[in-house]
Amino acid sequence: MNRYPVLVALNQISSVRWLTIKYLIELGWEPQEPVSDKLLDQLLLYGVKSTEIQKIRQELTTSFIAEVDRDLKKRQIQTITFFNEEYPVLLKEIAQPPWVLYIRGDASLLSAKSLAVVGTRRPTPYGLRVARELAAGLVEFDWTIISGMASGIDGEAHRSALEAKGQTIAVLGTGVDVIYPKHHRCLYEKIVREGAVISEMPPGTQPFPWVFPQRNRIISGLSHGTLVIEAAERSGSLITADFSMEQGREVFAVPGPMTSRQSQGTLKLIQDGAKCVRCVADIVEELEGLHFGQIPASMNKLDKINLNNIEEQVYQLIAPDEPIHIDALIEQLNRKGICEEIHQVLIVLELKNMIAQLPGARYIRK
Fold first, then answer.
1. pTM of structure
2. What kind and span of H or E run contains 65?
3. Selecting from 1.10.287.130, 3.10.180.10, 3.10.580.10, 1.10.10.10, what CATH number does the domain 307-365 have?
4. Across the beta sheet with 355-358, what order do the strands follow?
5. pLDDT tens by residue, 20-67
């Protein structure tokens, strides 16, 4: 399946950005061919740092490409690149689709009829029961369950799908060979045997916090819709729901008690237009007319993108014609009394195709 070993090896060089590969392709690079010195020199025209170019020049050798290929085969890790016929059609529709997907398990599931099921890591007994019932019920209608293998709702959705003899895909925020959380080892091994575990991160990548918002766009991107079962008002599950809306997919939410912290996010989603779910039929009826394998083009206009309060404030500080340095952003946000993790917010805005990062830690509005 790995017919693009150069691209796979390039993707595994640390610090090589998604945009750098995009620029190479725009310059005429054929991903099955070596990267010439001439093309690397031309990257300077796109503002790629000379240190990044030099790293590619030094590390992307014939021996390194062969070593990466051997290592993946030894670990029984499959790869599908953006240029393979097997690459999921749905995932091609998102902003910044992964150039390479690393897979353990059944790669054919990536093009199955799928629904994302996500939720809090600290569910109530009610949330766990709902996750079990809905995941098992969706499997009966031949839906593949996609989630992030996190503790709580994610893990319960995977487990219930497998127990119901259905199919499930775990999208990791680590390398496909890194089990996180560690107590999910048995679940991970079962998904590898009976479903699929995938990641866009090279093997060995550890669970860095910034990776998980980036991972969430793949969970929604592979799915025809996203079902949220219990989520706090600000959580990773809502990031997944946001991506789902921007990608033109359906969003479903399970209502819960207004006194429950774990229900505040789902109640807000319903208030904002997500479909309220009382049973499996509410989901199936909404999606039954969908032509699987085809979806509307991604929505990139601001009026169609749902930003939370912090994302909106950061976005408003970034101008379309004058780049702003990250230090200036932090200073202005601190004046407003906002102490959020600015790096995570910027990653989300980039993935939503709202802003672009320029050399020198500067940002500009698209």
1. 0.80
2. helix 62-74
3. 1.10.10.10
4. 324-325, 362-365, 355-358
5. 999 999 999 999 899 999 999 999 988 999 999 999 999 999 999 999
